[in-house]
Request: fold
Amino acid sequence: MGFSQKHLLGIEHLRPDEITAILDLADQYVDLNRRDVKHADALTGLTQINMFFENSTRTQASFELAGKRLGADVMNMAMQASSIKKGETLIDTAMTLNAMHPDLLVVRHPHSGAVDLLSQKVNCAVLNAGDGRHEHPTQALLDALTIRRAKGRLHRLNVAICGDVAHSRVARSNLILLGKMENRVRLVGPPTLVPAQFAEFGAEIYEDMAEGLKDVDVVMMLRLQRERMDGGFIPSEREYYHRYGLDAEKLSNAKPDAIVMHPGPMNRGVEIDGEIADDINRSVIQEQVEMGVAVRMAAMDLLARNLRASRAAEPVEV
Reply:
């Protein structure tokens, strides 16, 4: 399949052909998930542990469903009530996990780099389900699959990512992925939420929504991440919606067939108008949720293949 990674820690480690390999396999799993019988055996005999140090609804449920549909034994660890809260270090947690012999470890953590650290200490494949402000690779991959299915391609598109870019690991992963696949990316929002250094990613930065959305193919809205804000980034939600919330008037600047995306959860009337979010002709927000399960199935399938191959190549102890 042209995929050689041991872990999925971020998009920056993936080659364009590896991104395509995940999306191509995910397309097959979309078809499987739409059947009456939705089960396959790619992870049969393997154990998947989900460790979410931050609360999650969509991502955790999606990974759990993906693992179960592929035949894995899936365990969710309640990290909010775990030994971490009692003072155990991340390294000690890794040592404990190793003793359980898991095969796939899905981790979400509030600190950037924590998932990478865990991957260096455990003897299994690790998938990053979001670490701090760093990356959220499976979200970018499911967004890419949604775009490719809606537009018929994933290159040479004009994509606007709008809103709270500064605090968004989703924005960072999408920026990297869309850049690798030769798309033109615009970041739209107030200077407090779209710092100038994001131009280093090759993106164009706009403060005005009408200008930023002009003739784009994809409009990707972001959630205001108040839990990561420690100051006055916006004057008020009402003012933010007036200037940066996606409504019909602002959307009219995009191409007539432009699609609207949002990683969820949405704040209706703040980041996006409810009618736009529910418009079946423009919004692909529900499709994103569907693609999430398929992408996570594909990612775990490919990592499991590499894991099994590496174990088969290990010398047998006499």
About this structure: The CA atoms of residues 135 and 257 lie 29 Å apart. The chain has a mean pLDDT of 92. The chain is about 40% helix and 15% strand. Strands lie at 47-52, 73-77, 104-109, 125-131, 158-162, 184-188, 204-206, 218-221, 259-261.
